[in-house]
Amino acid sequence: MEFAMNEPGTRSSSGVCIASEEHGLCIAAIEHGTQMSEMLRSSQAASTSSLTSKLSGLNDLYKCVEEFLQLPQNQKTLSQSQQVLDGSLRLNDICSTSRDVLAVSKEQIQNIQSVLRRRCSGELDITNEVAEYLKTRRASKKTIKKCLKDINAVEPVAIESMLKDVQALTAEVFNSLLSYIGGSQKSSWSFFNQRSEKKAATSFDVVDAMLVKKVNVDMSQLVNLESEIQEIDEVLESLFRHLVKTRSTLLNVLSN
Question: Which InterPro entries does the record associate with it (predicted)?
Answer without folding.
Answer: BPS1_pln (IPR004320)
